[in-house]
Amino acid sequence: MKILIVGTGGVGGYFGGRLAQAGHSVTFIARGAHKEAMEKNGLEVQSINSDFSVTKVNVTEKISEAEVPDLVIISVKAWQVKDIAQQLKSVIGQSTMVLPLQNGVLASDELKEYLPEKNVLSGLCRIISKIEGPGKINHLAVDPTIVFGECDNSKTDRVYALEKVFNDSGFKGRVANDIQSDLWKKFISICVSAWLAVTRSTYGEVRAQPETRKVMRDLFDEVTELAHKKGINIESDFVDKTMAFIDTFPPESTSSLTRDVWEGKPSELEYQNGSVVKLADEIGLDVPVNRFIYYSLILMEKKARKK
Prior knowledge:
Layout: E1 2-6, H1 10-21, E2 25-29, H2 32-41, E3 43-47, E4 52-54, E5 58-60, E6 71-74, H3 81-88, E7 97-100, H4 107-111, E8 121-133, E9 136-150, H5 157-167, E10 172-175, H6 179-190, H7 193-199, H8 203-208, H9 210-229, H10 238-246, H11 256-262, H12 273-283, H13 288-306
Parallel strand pairs: 1-2, 1-6, 2-5, 3-9, 6-7, 9-10
Antiparallel strand pairs: 3-4, 8-9
């Protein structure tokens, strides 16, 4: 399978590396020192599931230089999706599948503003990973998984074929029964990232302190109520399961949004807690915890985007 990885960070680097290791023809989009290191030394991945490397890597800066792929995995930050969609027009074939793995619940709709609907899937991933250095990816926690499907939840031959490709490549792939439900479940859980940023604390620290743990729980409850109001199917015990899941994270772990805020970089704040506030305002739902967290970080976000 010809695969294009747009965004070779912790997510794209890990999953693209596994797919290349399995023998697929993978092209990575990367820039600067990261690209140079991959061209010279290949891609190295440290992983809790065993380290691996890909010695010969096809990497380029420009999407337009890639061959028409069978699959595009988009693993850039959420705010970059619209720009990427416009660049993809030149390499999308009739049967190309475009799979976004962004945090939030807007990526597929944003892609369909520029690309044919038939090419676009919906998806998410579960992994805690990051760029450790040029040409090096570090998978720190969580069993790597891609959950995906057709945007209308139809069960097609192509999604089941892709599920097999993923599972044969050393990570879990699963066709969702209800991809909207799965997207919102992840959305609920990741919105705590901004709370870590506000408290300047790790998952371990936030979950261990009773007061900050309560805020985390309240945050999840608010987003779950929003999901229910929007007709999304979320089980009644989902927040309990989410709290238990976070209790399994390595104590020192954080998230990409958290680290971006701490480092003064643009973050996905608008696509996480910002989206909660905007979607809640549209239906007249009060979300005071998410609103406080969003407002607490909005000035830092604006400053980061002016750099």
